[in-house]
Amino acid sequence: MGGDSNYRAVFRCIAGCSEEYPLDEVVYRCKKCGGLLEVYHDVDRLRELSPKKWKELFNSRVGTTKWPYGSGVWSKKEWVCPEVDNENIVSMFEGNTNLFWAKRFGAMIGMNDLWIKMCGNSHTGSFKDLGMTVLVSMVNEMIMRGKPIKAVACASTGDTSAALAAYCAYAGIPSIVFLPRNKISTAQLVQPMSNGSIVMSLDTDFDGCMRIVQEITKDNTIYLANSMNSLRIEGQKSISVEIVQQFDWEVPDVIIIPGGNLGNVSALGNGFDMMLQLGLITKKPRIVLAQAQNANPLYVAYRNGFKEFKPITPQKTLASAIQIGDPVSVIKAIKALQQFDGIVEQASEDELSNAAALADRTGMYSCPHTGVALAVLLKLVEKQVISKTDKTVVISTAHGLKFSEFKVGYHQGTLPDVKSNYANKPIELEANADRVREVLFNELQRRSTVAY
User: Fold this and answer.
1) What are phi and psi of 49, to 5 degrees?
2) Residue 287 · residue 268 · CB < 8 Å
3) What is the pLDDT of residue 236?
4) 94-151 per-position pLDDT tens digit
5) I need a surface site. Which of 180, 266, 340, 436 has the fewest CB within 10 A?
6) What is the mean pLDDT of residues 192-198?
7) Which of 247, 183, 306, 361 is closest to 374 using CA atoms?
């Protein structure tokens, strides 16, 4: 076995039977009962280091070039995946993304302590890098141990495929991505193409792609990279530690995160739960899960008190990465929300588009999924569910540049079901200084009377 011999982690069934499997076994569900698995750490061993020492260790690694600890994920290696030898880690020093103080946007709604966690400022432009570095590193470790893995595959609405393709290309491991045809942005489609993936564009939606990839990966030589594989969750949970670390170990009051396949919210909860268990924090944040109204199965379940969850057929949404009706991580997500006084709220196409555009006016460049989270923030502040004095963090899951068609459509006024309240079209004029001066003066006068 490789990795750090001081610490141990295994797959464990969350359905109640508590079956365990080593992390280098190709397994995605419990072989005994079919339940989902999660990575279980030897917390007693981790407790041998005091909370103060853990904080000092994590702080000492920020910004270092010492391999692999300069990564925002691998700086927490002992908590994430101690099984992997450092030499087999596949990392682009992901994570360490900035917390952006949304000063002007917050002032518009009376909030002085509003922050945006800019996860799109990562190698492939989304938070999916955090999980993919762990999964591909473990695959690389398994190959080095002689496991007969030929390729890694995923179903995707765009961001997962980009992360898988990039990390596999870096490691020299073949990757396969299944994408719903004509349902993702051009930028998202070209990323795995550029990184050399086998790109399968299927006439179905994400849920159909997910069914296909689960069939294909029954051949254990093709490894499944979707978030039902809890190695992904381990990397993504580092965001919780990173946020608190950036606040000098102070826990925010509220965190809002968009959700589709729901691995992200369960990862967020896992990170905070681990810090609580190990004594680094004593307070829980409230977690808010934001869904697009056109793809809202968890919102529907939340409205009935999580008594019943029913998959839906999602309608087309501009927030394409969360256009998912049958999320594989729903059980884990509900558990996290119940543990962290969770709320699920939804946003319409009009609400998410205008929230993203309004945020852009204050210096952001928001993807539509971040628009969903921002729209939910506006709703919950208006309803006084979130206090204006709460220290609130909105997770921005991807970079807006990956969704240029969304931005162009908004400002041209061509998005369906959207009234573009903040459209800003170019002013086309002849090249005449007097005419340009006249129009500029009038435009500056107009803008002085409205919020820009």
Assistant:
1) -100, 130
2) yes
3) 96
4) 999 999 999 999 999 999 999 999 999 999 999 999 999 999 999 999 999 999 999 9
5) 436
6) 96
7) 361
- Which helix (H) or strand (E) segment holds residue 395: the answer is strand 392-396
Number of residues written out for the chain:
452
Dist CA 124 CA 120 (whole Å): 8
Q: How far is CA 32 from CA 13, 24, 38, 328, 330, in A?
A: 9, 18, 15, 19, 20
**SS3 of residue 44 by DSSP:** helix
Q: Which CATH class is domain 99-124+233-412?
A: alpha beta
DSSP summary character for residue 1:
-
CA distance linking residue 313 with residue 324, whole number of Å: 8
Kindly report the backbone phi and psi dihedral angles of residue 90, in degrees, each rounded to the nearest multiple of 5, phi listed first.
Answer: -110, 100
Q: What is the pTM of this model?
A: 0.94
Q: Are 363 and 107 in contact (CB under 8 A)?
A: no
Residues 6+ apart with CB under 8 A from 429: 435, 436, 439
Strand (E) positions, 156-261?
175-180, 198-202, 222-224, 254-258
Distance separating alpha carbons of residues 328 and 29, to the nearest angstrom: 11
For the chain, the structural domain boundaries read 99-124+233-412
Assigned token pair, 211: 């069914």
Report the phi/psi class of residue 413: left, alpha or beta, with left for phi > 0 and alpha for psi in -120 to 50: left
What average pLDDT is seen over the chain? 94
What is the rounded end-to-end Cα distance, in angstroms, of the chain?
Answer: 58
Tens of pLDDT, residue by residue over 342-363, are 999 999 999 999 999 999 999 9
Question: What's the one-letter identity of residue 273?
Answer: D
Burial of 444 (0-12, 13-18, 19+ CB in 10 A): exposed
Task: Say if residues 258 and 299 touch (Cβ distance below 8 Å).
Answer: no
**8 Å CB contact between 261 and 227:** yes
Cα angle 120, 222, 239 (rounded to 5 degrees) comes to: 25
Amino acid 258 reads P
SS3 content of the chain, % helix, strand, coil (to 5): 40, 15, 45
Give backbone dihedrals phi and psi of 181, rounded to 5 degrees, phi first.
-60, 135
Q: Is 293 helix (H, G, I), strand (E, B) or coil?
A: coil
> Which is nearest to 62 in space by CA: 219, 248, 227?
248
